[in-house]
Amino acid sequence: AISYQYLGRTQIALGNLEDALAFYQQFNQLAQELHHDFPDHVDFKEGLAISYQYLGNTQSALGNLEDALDFYQHLNQLEQELHYDFPDNVDFKNGLAISYQCLGETQSTLGNLEDALDFYQQLNQLEQELHYDFPGNVDFKEGLAISYFKLGACYQQHDQLILAKDYFQRAAALWQALATVFPSYVEFSRNLAEVKEILAEL
Q1: Close Cβ partners of 81 (under 8 Å, ≥ 6 residues apart)
Q2: What angle (nearest 5°) sits at the alpha carbon of residue 50, between those of residues 45 and 113?
């Protein structure tokens, strides 16, 4: 299963999405069998969740959004169960947050803005908790910034511009802090510039 996972990731890096999908399907098949045979084995359950995430990401990249949504729903269900059973496990909590982001982005692209907003709100709640518990963790701080940006974009699409502006400003403050501490990390500066441009137009 792990070997198929690595093959899929390598094909993704090479830009061969169809080949990657085939390997991820084999990864998922074995992960399903492992989880079925050993339902109490946490690593196998997490592995199955990861396989659904990879399938969802690949289908999304291929433009198959309905298929991606289905895989992300499986991912979310497993991550909910893992987080419920192990509420103190930070990786499972972060995995659940990622699943909400995947669902929100897919629903937004499909034009289902109410569903997207609901998922982004749940993403934001988890990111706030992660950042509060681990304020020095850069990934969680960035995750919170992303969740604010997603909410801002969603409210902007709903023409709720006051709320949109508030969330964009929160995202900008976090990316400003990250860009100041990590000036060589281009993505933080690029995200900051993007959200400032949006704010200037609101």
Answers
A1: 45
A2: 115
Percent share of the chain, pLDDT over 70: 100
Those residues whose C-beta lies under 8 Å from the C-beta of residue 148, and which sit 6 or more positions away, are: 124, 167, 168, 170, 171, 174
Tokens of 200: 């200037």
Q: Are 156 and 163 in contact (CB under 8 A)?
A: no
Segments in the chain forming alpha helices (H): 2-14, 17-37, 42-61, 65-85, 90-109, 113-133, 138-157, 161-181, 186-201
- Give the whole-angstrom CA distance, residue 25 versus residue 126: 29
At 134 the pLDDT is: 96
How much is the CA Rg of the chain, to the nearest whole Å? 18
Q: What average pLDDT score do residues 88-95 get?
A: 97
The pair of structure tokens assigned to 95 is 């995995």
Give, as one character, the DSSP assignment of residue 89.
Answer: -
Compute the distance between CA of residue 161 and CA of residue 185 in angstroms, rounded to an integer. Answer: 30
Confidence at residue 199, expressed as pLDDT on a 0 to 100 scale: 96
Q: Confidence class of residue 101 from pLDDT cuts 50, 70 and 90?
A: very high
State how far the Cα of 1 lies from the Cα of 134, in Å rounded to an integer: 32
The rounded mean pLDDT for the chain is 97
Separation between Cα atoms, residue 140 and residue 152, nearest integer Å: 18
> What residues have CB less than 8 Å from 52, skipping those under 6 apart?
28, 71, 72, 74, 75, 78
